[in-house]
UniProtKB/TrEMBL annotation:
It comes from Ignisphaera cupida. This is ABC transporter ATP-binding protein. SUPFAM superfamilies: P-loop containing nucleoside triphosphate hydrolases. The keyword Nucleotide-binding applies. Residues 4-234 form the ABC transporter domain. Keywords: ATP-binding, Nucleotide-binding, Transport. PROSITE patterns: ABC_TRANSPORTER_1 (PS00211), ABC_TRANSPORTER_2 (PS50893).
Amino acid sequence: REIIVVDNVTKVYRVGDVVTQALRGVSLKVFEGEIISIMGPSGSGKTTLLNMIGLLDKPSSGRVIIDGIDVSRLGSREIASIRNTKIGFVFQFFNLINRLTVLENIEMPLIPRGIPKSKRIEMAKEALVKAGGDVSWLPKKPTQLSGGQQQRVAIARAIVGNPRIVLADEPTGNLDRASAKVVMQTFLELNKIGTTIAIVTHDPEIANCTQKIYIIRDGQIVSIQIPDTSKCIL
Ligand code: ADP
Ligand code: ADP
């Protein structure tokens, strides 16, 4: 079953007189339970594509269908609700809020859902352990943790609401090899329990751990490669 369908999506950015065609008719389908990666040169449209899939921004034309719902027909409030319940995001620079504790960062996506505090703490703990972290981090500030540890907290925040889809933009781009390995291990474990995962990466040793590598160049998917699992970072 297809959980993500991108159908002939284009994206044009206009900044003053500068027009950038970031996506030029991209189509792809990701099946439920798949783990895929997206590779390509800087500026080729990888982040833009991930933002379209993640409903962070609207295509200029074409359709994005998430879990059978054609999002192009929906209003922004309905789109936000799909994003918040079905999708978790992980970023290169973690995007944690440094003045909040680790616990407050992780539980944040649960607050708009009206989940009571005690339940939020329980869910945050479970997510942090699943993400390869340690509950002793919960009262700390993110800046008291290493980069690798902060990324585990960010993954915990992404998965705390049990999303069906996790999207990651260069999740290991700022990490040493050992931390990158832990992060990839975590993604594979999440995938094993049925989470669909898409990872934008420059790192062949990350892409080779996934099931399919989409190569994007100048706003178009130019090939789909079969990973060489012997070259996976694990
Ligand atoms: P990648 O992730 O592969 O590096 P991006 O998707 O970030 O590529 O960018 C694709 C192209 O679109 C680039 O030329 C970039 O400068 C441009 N772009 C991306 N986001 C914006 C934006 N918000 N406004 C204007 N141009 C943008
Ligand atoms: P990445 O490291 O994933 O390639 P970028 O540095 O391309 O990310 O983009 C970071 C942010 O800046 C994104 O939100 C993107 O939409 C925005 N952005 C990228 N290029 C431009 C641009 N030319 N003009 C305005 N915003 C941009």
